[in-house]
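Quarterly update from the structural biology core.
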Amino acid sequence: MISYSNQKKFTICLKLVIINRSSLNINLFEFDRVIKSQLYTVFNLPKQNLVLKIETKVLYKYKLSQLYNKLVLCICDSVQHNNPAETHFKGLLICINKLFIQEILSGKNTRTIPHEFGHALGLDHPHARASFNTINEEATTLEKQIPINEFSTNLMSQTWYVQKANININKAINLHQNQIELIKQNLMQQKLNNNYSIKKMLFWYKWVV
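Predicted structure, tokenized:
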């Protein structure tokens, strides 16, 4: 689950379960260490009154009931359109394509994981789908107010957008103040955790994709 506390600093509290549903043999504890480092780099911003707190649980073996209502980061054999990852918007399921795991572990790609967590926190792409130097009209008012000239280094721009601007993807991890404010609003107004990774049926549980 994603929750918050708001005392001296606004703190995002992530309780994350890491699993591997792919055919690869992956050291999930090393993966855990790497993604924590990447997330802290982007979302732990005490100067902007934003702090990140992460609790993780690595499960090599699990039952679906253990994942019910949990924020799940799942390594999968395939992701739609062969993208590096996909996330249920404002939801509890983040799927990582196994083909990109080595890039993430090696540090060649330090952006995909924070980008997907941005979606889980309710952030949209600032630009229109498949369009360069445009505003995403489906985004929130706060996101529409982000200057276009900042899109190329923004965390929530899609990878192709960053590459088209000739920016190293690992350099495009900035959050605009409007995005930080939107994260806070989403948490305070309980707009997150809407799409569950596991659905509870009458006598059993079902994976939701």
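The chain has one domain: 2-204.
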